[in-house]
Write a structure and sequence with these properties.
By secondary structure, this protein is α/β, with parallel strands linked by helices. The chain contains 9 helices and 9 strands. The strands form 2 sheets. The protein has a 5-stranded parallel β-sheet with strand order 1-5-4-2-3, with helices on one face. Strands 7-6-8-9 form a 4-stranded parallel β-sheet, sandwiched between helices. The N and C termini lie far apart (41 Å).
Length: 312
């Protein structure tokens, strides 16, 4: 996009194929329909609060954004309600992450009868190195790209190119909003790198609750020594916990990190058995209350919590 900033680190990688076939128009970066009058706003539905905030930061007063998964909700297992289907039915545009995170949107679009374009923000992005969920060839890729602020900027560029092909002043405002937001994300990215660099390199080893943080770790110089659950809702067995504890002790991990939308019990159990501190309130798939009520606030919160735990 015009005015877009390059990624601050050289990246080499392919792209992920579209994993979801919807019975509607699925667009990588195409524009949606324009409002019917100058006084209207674009009615946008996003699957998560994180994506909704990205759209809102770009579109400002020219968009009205609804998140299907509510604040604190669980995107992996979300079941849309009748009110969610009504929002989808009346939307001008729908944004999802894709990559298997929010596949339930397909049924919601079909059930609602919506004909709005659906844009998968995380799929087929240039300049992105997609990480597989498992090392086996052909395995699905990890969908949590946005936890690297440099990759979140790629989402924003796609949002701008989707919203901006609208007549007149509205297009100029959206592009200006996108440029300003990309600058803030670049600043955020640099801040996160500098904050994590405060931790001695040998201490930048963590345990995460689920597979949400590989892009975050790769971007900011952390090592993930283990994860507690393979997928939300799939609790580990006693034997798996014992093996994880052994791996934690061998790795020298300094802390276990749970997430605010999940019960802290498992994270506390693993940390207690490993004899290391636990932090139970990182954010990944959802925003929360202030100061974690925006994407920028979420990244700042997570980075500060990691630094406080590992550099204490």
């Amino acid at each position: 996009m015009s005015g877009g900033r390059p990624l601050r680190r050289p990246r080499h990688g392919g792209s992920a194929g579209l994993l979801l076939a919807l019975a509607v128009t699925v667009s990588a970066c195409g524009g949606g329909p324009a409002p019917t009058s100058a006084g209207d706003t674009l009615r946008v539905v996003a699957t998560t609060t994180v994506l909704a905030d990205l759209v809102r930061q770009v579109g400002g007063a020219d968009v009205t954004v609804t998140s299907m998964v509510p604040k604190g909700g669980e995107v992996h297992t979300f079941d849309p309600s009748p009110s969610d289907l009504r929002a989808v039915a009346s939307a001008d545009l729908i944004f999802m992450n894709g990559l298997g995170l929010d596949d339930w949107l397909g049924d919601a679009v079909t059930d609602s009868g919506s004909s709005a374009p659906v844009i998968a923000l995380g799929e087929d992005l240039s300049g992105v190195t997609y990480q597989p969920v498992d090392p086996e060839p052909g395995e699905p890729v990890n969908p949590h790209l946005w936890l690297d602020a440099g990759y979140a900027a790629r989402y924003v560029e796609r949002i701008v190119e989707t919203l901006a092909p609208i007549e007149g002043e509205r297009s100029a405002r959206i592009r200006a909003g996108g440029d300003a937001y990309l600058q803030r994300l670049a600043d955020l990215d640099g801040w996160a790198l500098a904050r994590i660099a405060e931790i001695p390199e040998e201490d930048r080893v963590i345990v995460s609750f689920h597979e949400a943080f590989p892009y975050f770790a790769e971007a900011y110089g952390l090592t993930i020594a283990g994860i507690i659950v393979g997928a939300p809702g799939q609790d580990p067995s006693a034997g798996e916990i014992a093996r994880l504890v052994d791996a934690i002790r061998a790795s020298g991990a300094r802390a276990v990190f749970g997430e605010a939308q999940f019960s802290p019990d498992l994270a506390r159990t693993v940390a207690d058995e490993a004899g290391i501190p636990v932090v139970t309130d990182l954010y990944s798939d959802t925003l929360g209350d202030p100061p974690v009520d925006s994407y920028e606030g979420m990244i700042r919160w997570d980075v500060d919590r990691v630094v406080d735990a590992l550099d204490g």
